[in-house]
Amino acid sequence: LDVVADAVIALDSEGRVIFLNTAAEHLCGRERYDADGHVLDEVLPPLVDHQGTSAGSWGRLLAEGLAERTVSLRTGDGTRVVRCVVTPTSGVGNRSASTVVMLHDLT
Questions:
Q1: How far, in Å, are 72, 79, 92 from residue 48 at the CA level?
Q2: pTM assigned to the model
Q3: How many CB atoms within 10 Å of residue 91?
Q4: How far is CA 76 from CA 2, 48, 57, 68, in A?
Q5: Which of 7, 10, 20, 55 would staple 47 via disulfide (CB 3.0–4.6 Å)?
Q6: What is the mean pLDDT of residues 16-38?
């Protein structure tokens, strides 16, 4: 998964990060060991609307159950537009995952 250009984040059944690939590390601005065990709102840049103001939380986005949507993030480099795909899964490696979040940068 480290050779995939899109950011890939695996979450456990409680919504806590158990895996980030290299692209996700770059998007989040933190290394995978530092993100392990944290919820998405503590790891990913905040969601913003087209005016740059807060547009809710990652936790709420996951709770809505939408499989795919386009969102904007406020990063150190400015605003990034990404396609977010949320997929339920049975596991990643030797750790059981309940959700995989993939982010494709459209910026």
A1: 5, 8, 30
A2: 0.84
A3: 13
A4: 22, 13, 18, 25
A5: 55
A6: 91
